[in-house]
Write a structure and sequence with these properties.
It contains 54 helices and 70 strands. It has 1777 residues and is of the alpha/beta class. The protein is elongated, with a radius of gyration of 41 Å.
């Protein structure tokens, strides 16, 4: 028999089993619920146990089921679709146990029948007042006693985070968990069983929260269902996540259905033929998310119950053998219901989607990342196939649809209306965002009661004969009754190990006191002894209370102040720094510990105790085996002030900070007296303690009050509780204990251990103190426990919930042994059914008992004796609350904490509160004057307890949350516990571990966002967990009206725990925020939660004013129009005024200096590979020209494609073409390791440029014709290919003479947006450009210039091929791919050849920075010296990368690099060189601009370090002959100084128009002949396509030293100077001694040029093409990417793009795949916080996936195409909701 079949066992069978079998089953279930056994092991063991009994049962089932009525309610899921076994067993006491651990009593006599209950709600919910009071909580069902209360809302059991607290109403208590659906009859039988049980136990728990969740989900069913796209996971990640048990259970006895076709959920099974069709052979099985409506239509005939269709995402069959990442198809067409039998691939495409996606069907962005043979850059391209090659309809269906269909799905989901509209505003300042995050709801309920009056506890009467102090008590009992037991501790096996008598305790405490008074501790050089009042740490393990108690009283006798702390077990525990900080601030140098504990502490290599991180150095003192004190040593002689500190108790706040609460001796003894009176303690009683004895309730009762009264305490360590949860009840029975200290978790665990129940008697128990009675979870535990154990003698008046806090101690306590008199007095208990919606506004409102969103609370008893209690507002001034208002409970009494040690400010706000009678913020007017001096309630100081609640009738205290668990989301307050209750009500047992949930809030964009982290079961598949998550979102949204921001599932045992086994909430939150939680599944919902995004700014259209920005206001400020000039080229000294042909220059150099070496090429070792002199170049060019003429039949004006690696052949071929008058096009060769991707781009440029012939070298010609290439491009289709090394038969007749205005060459390149364009460069432009560069960079034949650039386009090509010939300097050429092989090549060349000027690309700078970060010392040893470098220009067509250049400078400063010599240049398609930092130019100016203003196209200058500031650096000085203006790209109006607009350029070396733009030519016609609409409208400019601004700046002379640390000069605003300068004569200075040689203003007539000069700096902000417009604002991808790169250390690279208005962020993970999901929340948070943008999709990929071109720029459009075509092979794709 299989385990699966065993799951269908009914209750009847279980109840008929022998008791020993039932006990074994119960034990097995407990193991499973605690996660101590795997699902598989559980099923096998269970099947084995039940084997003999099953056969008899099966025969009776079918008959029974026929007559059953359908169930009245049904929960969200069919009861047979779960994967784990939650079978129920009934034991001999008639208690049913589900495997998750609920005990239900089958018979409770006094209850109405199930039929009644369901036919008429009011029979079961008696309408009652909010707080029903009864003398006993055990009244029969009818009114308040058992009103369905918090039970319904809250899962049963202990505090949040205790392992194993469980939900009272368990929907899936009895479920079939097999893979095969059972017969209908067995289904019905199970349902009936389930209902029967829940009806009968309704006394102590109701279905309200379950029903709430069901109805919430049912209500959502009628709406169009959001079909959430499933995240995609790589299979390797899938295998690591806890749902991938590849071996399915093979013990199934029903093998008739092939395993792949078994769906985990019967309700989602497609018809069989549909499934088999959809399994297309080579493809993995596809699991498409399908729109709900079509599924309902298709599958109506499969459903037995309409309520089952409530899942937002449908599940599809998954193959057990081959788990692949779920791959999604497009949503089914909703209208077409007949498509059930056709395979999913053939769906019609959604028209809207197809149009959007592929309207502009152009060839894919060609890629120019080719010739780098090192792996990194190659990798960045290999990922994508060119879409041009694989036409859309040819791609495999799954690949095409996977990503884009999911995005479409996400968009459809996001079209749902938001919960509340965005407020109509946009402001830069944070105050507005803050207001938006906390809206005032006009319809919110307001408190209506009168102001409360303080509640007084009874008079504290000290029983006669009670000792005066704890020391006296110990002396008295230690001498008079020295044989009586004080404390007993059990070992982990439940045996009593040692008992401490009062005599032993007294003598040991004396020994410790004596030893501490005499022992000399060395503190550094001096010796110290401990004096009374000194603080010491007590470090004892949780299983050694006896040593702890002796040490505690030893300190008391000596007058020392103990601070008990947790044992630092290992580094994996909570980081101990916080505790270390507390120890340091308390000045603790000595720690008392036991021998065993000392051995277990972490040791260093030398064997000493390791110094823990953040801890002070401690002296460890062992408190055992001490010598006897001398006779004259008397502990009673020590007199200590009552106000002195007695001890310090540690506590943690919401953020995880650890603080110490100082307790005075008076407070300690007063509290003990109050507890003695309230609990009626007497001498000789026995208490059983399960609590932590080091702090709070455990310390106060079991260590202090017990000694005051001479009682006996039996301690049960946590380890034993885990093994034997009922051990505490057995001890009560054995010792006839009268009192017991527990948490509700322990009650719950005790209920589970049913096999131990038979021998238990609780008749001796007069007080069962529930320490976490303030936690609303405790209600159902108490009720259930009482119900089960009343039969064992438990009295209802023995259950005493109490509320406590570290600051106030015991806040309130339900008194034991309440008499049964009526009326509100000591005897009363109460419960309240409250509206959660009202509570979220801080108001108490009674709710009807059958409301779905009600919350039932139990009271925590009355105020303590001698105390006075008020409730004040939890925020703002401590104003007294109204009677129906929830606030923070404050107490004044002689027994509260005194202060937070060393934290005066926090102490005043917590321990010294004077409640005010009226609100100071609403002053009353009296005769025109406003009087506002709020009157305090009294002179007394109250202490804040940290508990939120209100006072009910009769002084009963009700607690509905704590300050730490409070989350204020958009102005409403939510309690973390309430949300946990709702989460657990969504079929929890199948997916997550009960006690393993952390709920906390994080602050993002000025509002708190709710995060839910749960541990998921290992047998839970991806789809199941995702389904569960989407239901949780709906349930929480419906019941609490709050959106969950992040829902994450972590593998079992991954949430950090406290020493006593609960969830460590602060640590979980910390790990989540730092990205080290490693979740297995994440669902982020920023679209639904974030409602306070800023609105875009309204654009003002003021076209009537003239120039857009020269408005009156600007003129008053003296703003000038943005225009700037480079110096005049005409002033050149050496007669090079008139442009001349470059061919003429080469011929002249070959004649005048034939042997001058003009080019040197280096290999990867740095050795000289080849050199070229002027005459060699001339001769080779002539030979190539002759070859082209003879073999290629090339005429002047023909186009020749040059496909060469970077080197000298390229140069010779280029000049060969010019000699012939042909027009060369330089093309990067295809990458040999990556032909498929790179070859099509090469071919495309050859075709688009209309090249008639290809010139190349032999290796590349072979590559073009190779078999690998043939798979991509047919070798026969190439134009004729010539080898440059062939020899012509004849010489060249003569060099062609061409006009200056004819084309010299075509410059082709691909923009970062993937647009291929070729520009036409004439001989005139070429000549002017060379003249301009020669002048700016001071290039002469004697100079050596090192180039590490790609020689294929733009300034890189000009520097490599043209300028060297023009100015005759020596160019040392280094191919960038050689630097990848040898990163130090470029720097060592600079040093070796003493190079003064060098040009490189960002790629090279980045490579050196990353690859050589640890090699600077070794470079120094090799004598690499960079002091010779005068200018290092980074060639780029982008915004200068400030951070990268600063890192580079900082790193190589150690090699003598002057940080001021590194600068940037700027060029673009229309003009290859606009700005270059010249040799004698001053250092580049820096400014800081406001990022938020930039989004709205404004430039706002801010100080360095201001929030949201962005550092921009000028892109070099304008070249001679260049004029630049800033124009509005839309209106073409002229912008003012410091205004953002498009950079327009006018220059003799502008390109001469586009030869072609691949794709859409229309938009670009005006790029070369743009005219302003205002001002000088006749002048013609070229549009660069880049946004930027001009700023007149003071710059220092070249000689001055401007450090990055003194930005004042650079960022000084010069508006005043420019105002003066407008009226002054503007002169052009050509004298090179002036820094920038730019247009210079004479300020105020004084020629002050020797030290300061004004020049116009050009700041490039980014390419217009790349601007991302979202929500009406403009973002530059680089800014978002920089934020993302900073958010986690494992992010290696990042790129962003948009797709259908969704922001997609691709991050490269440089780490383990298991860390991939950590990045999703961090990326989302960072972008939201810093840019107010919601990330739609987060894609985590391997390093090297983001494609980068030769200039080091990211190819974002390539990446986008690769993503949409599914070619990225991502580790994880998260679709944010």
């Amino acid at each position: 028999m299989s385990a699966t079949a065993a799951n269908f066992l009914g209750m009847d069978l279980i109840s008929s089993l022998p008791s020993d079998v039932r006990e074994k089953l119960a034990e097995l279930d407990l193991e499973l619920s605690e996660g101590d056994i795997t699902q598989k092991g559980y099923e096998k063991k269970r099947a084995k146990l039940l084997q003999p009994y099953l056969k008899k049962q099966e025969l009776n089932d079918v008959e029974k089921a026929k007559n059953l009525p359908p169930p009245p309610y049904y929960n969200i899921k069919d009861s047979n679709n779960s994967n784990n076994s939650n079978n129920s067993n009934v034991n001999s006491d008639g208690v049913i146990i589900s495997s998750e651990g609920y005990s239900y009593v089958t018979e409770v006599p006094s209850l109405p029948s199930s039929q009644q209950r369901h036919s008429k709600k009011s029979d079961f919910h008696q309408p009652s007042s909010a707080i029903s009071s009864s003398s006993s909580s055990a009244t029969p069902q009818g009114g308040g006693g058992g009103a369905p209360g918090y039970e319904n809302m809250r899962p049963q059991g202990g505090a949040v985070g205790d392992p194993g607290y469980q939900n009272t109403r368990e929907p899936n208590t009895f479920q079939n968990h097999g893979a095969h659906p059972p017969s209908n009859s067995s289904q019905h039988r199970q349902r009936r069983t389930q209902r029967k049980v829940t009806h009968n136990e309704k006394r102590y728990h109701s279905e309200v929260r379950q029903e709430a969740v069901q109805q919430a989900l049912a209500a959502l069913k009628s709406r169009p269902k959001p079909s959430l796209p499933m995240p995609s996971k790589r299979s390797s990640v899938l295998n690591r996540s806890p749902g991938c048990n590849d071996e399915l259970d093979s013990s199934s006895d029903d093998e008739s259905i092939p395993e792949e076709l078994i769906s985990p959920d019967k309700e989602y099974n497609y018809p069989r033929d549909h499934i088999s069709n959809s399994m297309l052979p080579p493809e993995p099985i596809i699991k498409p998310p399908i729109r709900e409506s079509s599924i309902i239509a298709q599958q109506q005939h499969l459903r037995h119950d309409v309520k089952q269709s409530q899942a937002p995402i449908q599940k599809y069959p998954s193959s057990g053998s081959e788990r692949r990442p779920p791959q999604n198809l497009p949503p089914l067409p909703t209208s077409d219901t007949s498509s059930t039998d056709s395979p999913p691939i053939g769906y019609k495409r959604d028209h809207e989607f197809t149009d959007k996606a592929y309207k502009q069907k152009h060839l894919n962005a060609p890629d120019i990342t080719q010739f780098n043979n090192a792996h990194r850059i190659a990798d960045r391209v290999t990922r994508y196939v060119n879409v041009s090659q694989t036409e859309l309809n040819e791609t495999d269906a799954n690949g095409k649809w996977k990503v884009s269909a999911k995005i479409q799905q996400l968009l459809n989901t996001l079209k749902r209306p938001k919960r509340r509209p965005l407020p109509e505003f946009y402001e830069d300042n944070d105050i507005e965002l803050e207001i938006a995050a906390n809206p005032k709801d006009p319809n919110a309920p307001k408190p209506e009661g009168s102001t409360m009056t303080p509640v007084q506890g009874e008079q504290l009467s000290i029983p006669a004969g009670l000792p005066r102090t704890l020391e006296c008590a110990l002396q008295r009992y230690g001498i008079n009754s020295f044989k009586s037991s004080m404390a007993t501790v059990l070992d982990p096996n439940g045996k009593i190990t040692t008992t401490l008598t009062y005599g032993k305790l007294y003598s040991r405490a004396q020994k410790i006191a004596y030893a501490l008074s005499t022992k000399i501790f060395s503190k550094g050089p001096e010796q110290v002894t401990l004096k009374p009042g000194d603080r010491v740490a007590l470090v004892y393990p949780n299983n050694d209370p006896l040593s702890f108690i002796t040490a505690w009283y030893g300190c008391m006798f000596r007058g020392l102040v103990p601070l008990p702390i947790e044992l630092p077990l290992s580094s994996s525990d909570t980081p101990p720094q916080q505790v270390g900080f507390l120890l340091s601030s308390c000045g603790i140098t000595v720690a008392l510990t036991s021998e065993a504990c000392l051995k277990g502490l972490p040791k260093s290599a030398t064997g000493e105790i390791a110094k823990l991180k953040g801890w002070p150095r401690l002296q460890w003192f062992v408190t055992e085996h001490l010598p006897k004190p001398p006779k004259d040593f008397n502990v009673g002689n020590l007199r200590i002030e009552e106000t002195a500190a007695a001890y310090i108790e540690y506590t943690t706040d919401k953020e995880g900070s650890v603080m110490g609460i100082t307790v005075t001796r008076a407070a300690m003894i007063n509290h003990c007296r109050a507890l003695t009176m309230a609990c009626h303690y007497t001498e000789g009683e026995t208490i059983v303690c399960v609590l932590d004895f080091k702090r709070e309730v455990g310390l106060w009762h079991a260590v202090l009050t017990s000694v005051l009264n001479g009682m006996h305490v039996v301690f049960i360590p946590y380890a034993l509780m885990k093994l034997r949860p009922s051990s505490w009840m057995q001890l009560i029975t054995k010792h006839r204990a009268s009192c017991c200290l527990v948490k509700s978790r322990d009650l719950h665990w005790g209920l589970l251990a049913t096999k131990d129940h038979k021998d238990i008697s609780l008749a001796s128990l007069r007080m069962l103190l529930v320490a976490d009675g303030a936690n609303p979870w405790s209600l159902s535990s108490c009720d259930q426990f009482l119900n089960v154990f009343q039969a064992k003698g438990l009295r209802s008046d023995a259950i005493c919930p109490c509320a406590s806090s570290s600051e106030v101690f015991t806040v309130s306590l339900r008194r034991p042994g309440r008499s049964s008199t009526t009326g509100f007095c000591q005897s009363a208990t109460g419960r309240g059914v409250l509206s959660m919606a009202a509570l979220s506004h801080g108001v108490v409102r009674v709710d009807s008992e059958d409301s779905l969103t009600s919350l039932t609370l139990q009271d925590c008893g009355q105020v303590m004796p001698g105390a006075q209690m008020v409730v004040v507002r939890s925020e703002g001034a401590p104003v007294l609350c109204k009677t129906d208002q929830v606030g923070e409970i404050c107490v004044t009494s002689g027994s509260t904490g005194a202060s937070y040690f060393g934290l005066d400010g926090m102490t005043n706000s917590t321990f010294k509160v004077q409640p005010l009678l009226e609100d100071p913020e609403q002053p009353k007017e009296t005769g025109g004057t406003i009087v506002s001096s709020p009157k305090p309630l009294s002179e007394e100081y109250y202490v804040r307890s940290g508990l939120l609640g209100f006072l009910g009738p009769g002084g009963l205290v009700f607690v509905c949350g704590s300050r730490d668990g409070l989350m204020t989301v958009t102005g409403r307050k939510h309690n973390a516990d309430d949300i946990i209750a709702t989460v657990l009500a969504v079929e929890p047992m199948r997916f997550i571990y009960r006690g393993r949930i952390a709920v906390f809030s994080i602050k993002v964009l000025r509002d708190e966002r709710v995060c839910v982290i749960a541990e998921q079961r290992p047998d839970c598949s991806e789809e199941e967990s995702f389904q569960w998550m989407s239901r949780v979102l709906q349930a929480v949204d419906s019941i609490h009206q709050v959106g969950i921001y992040c829902l994450a599932l972590v593998p079992p045992n991954h949430l950090p725990k406290t020493p006593l086994g609960g969830i460590h909430l602060c640590e979980a939150r910390r790990r989540f925020l730092e990205g080290s939680l490693h979740p297995a599944n994440v669902l982020m919902c920023p679209h639904t939660c974030v409602t306070n995004l800023p609105k875009p700014r309204e654009m003002h259209q003021d076209t009537g004013v003239g120039p857009a920005s020269v408005m009156v206001g600007n003129l008053v400020q003296g703003n000038r129009l943005a225009v700037a000039h480079g110096r005049d080229v005409g002033m050149a000294e050496d007669g090079e005024r008139k442009p001349q042909l470059i061919t003429g220059v080469l011929r002249w150099r070959a004649n005048t200096s034939p042997d001058h070496i003009i080019f040197t090429l280096l290999n990867s070792k740095g050795a000289i590979a080849k050199t070229l002199t002027c005459s060699e170049l001339h001769k080779r060019a002539e030979k190539i020209a002759a070859l082209l003429q003879e073999r290629g039949k090339i005429e002047p004006g023909d186009h020749v494609a040059l496909i060469f690696p970077p080197g000298l052949d390229l140069l010779c071929a280029f000049y060969g073409c010019l000699y012939l008058g042909a027009i060369p096009i330089t093309i990067r060769p295809p990458h040999p390791q990556n032909l498929i991707t790179t070859l099509p781009t090469v071919r495309m440029i050859v075709d688009v440029s209309k090249s008639g012939i290809v010139l190349s070298i032999q290796p590349i010609i072979k590559l073009l014709k190779s078999r690998e290439a043939a798979s991509s491009i047919d070798p026969k289709t190439w134009p004729p290919i010539l080898d440059i090394d062939d020899n012509p038969k004849r010489k060249l007749a003569g060099i062609a003479t061409v006009s200056l205005d004819s084309s010299a060459y075509l410059d082709f390149s691909v923009s970062t947006c993937g647009r291929l364009s070729g520009v036409n460069i004439t001989h005139r432009s070429l000549s002017s450009l060379c003249a301009s560069l020669k002048l700016a960079c001071e290039l002469y034949p004697s100079r050596h210039v090192a180039l590490c650039l790609d020689p294929y386009c733009g300034l890189g090509f000009v520097m490599w091929t043209l300028i060297g010939v023009y100015s005759g300097h020596h160019s040392i050429l280094i191919a960038p791919y050689e630097v990848e092989a040898n990163p130090s090549l470029w720097l060592s060349t600079l040093s070796q050849h003493r190079v003064r000027d060098t040009f490189c690309s960002y790629g090279v700078i980045e490579l050196c920075t990353k690859a050589l970060s640890n090699s600077v010392p070794s470079l120094k040893q090799r004598n690499v010296d960079l002091r010779c470098v005068r200018t290092c220009v980074v060639v780029g067509e982008e915004r200068p990368r400030v951070t990268l250049t600063q890192q580079f400078c900082k790193l190589f400063q150690g090699l003598g690099l002057n940080t001021r010599c590194v600068s940037t240049s700027f060029g673009c398609r229309v003009n290859p060189a606009i700005c270059v930092q010249g040799a004698s130019s001053a250092e580049s100016a820096q400014v800081y601009v406001d990022l938020r203003a930039l989004r709205n196209n404004r430039v706002a200058l801010v100080e360095r370090g201001a929030p949201n500031s962005l550092c921009l650096i000028e892109s070099g000085k304008l070249l001679p002959g260049v004029k630049v203006i800033i124009a509005n790209p839309e209106t073409k109006g002229h912008c003012g100084d410091s205004h953002l607009g498009e950079i327009w350029v006018q220059s003799p070396h502008n390109a001469n128009g586009y030869f072609t733009i691949y794709g859409d030519e229309t938009d670009y016609n005006d790029h070369f002949n743009a005219k302003l609409v205002t001002g000088a409208t006749s002048e013609v400019y070229a549009r660069t396509g880049y946004l930027g601004f001009l700023r007149r700046t003071e710059c220092s002379q070249a000689a001055s030293i401007l450090d990055e640390t003194t930005p004042s000069v650079a960022s000084r605003d010069s508006d005043t100077e420019s105002l003066n300068s407008m009226s002054q004569l503007q002169l052009n200075f050509s004298n090179t001694s002036l820094g920038g040689n730019s247009e210079h203003s004479l300020v105020g007539g004084a020629v002050n040029s020797s030290d300061q000069e004004l020049h116009d700096a050009v700041y490039v902000v980014g390419a217009l093409d790349e601007v991302i417009s979202l929500r009406g604002m403009n973002y530059h991808p680089i800014d978002i990417e920089n934020s993302v790169l900073r958010c986690h250390k494992k992010i290696a690279e990042c790129a962003v793009f948009t797709w259908t208005n969704l922001l997609v962020v691709v991050v490269e993970l440089d780490g383990n795949e298991s860390e991939a999901l950590d990045l999703v929340p961090l990326v989302t948070n960072t972008v939201l916080e810093e840019h107010q943008l919601i990330v739609g999709v987060v894609v985590v990929v391997d390093p090297g996936v983001v494609p980068i071109n030769s200039r080091g720029e990211k190819q974002r459009m390539h990446l986008r195409d690769g993503f949409l075509a599914d070619q990225l092979d991502p580790i994880y794709v998260a679709y944010n909701m």
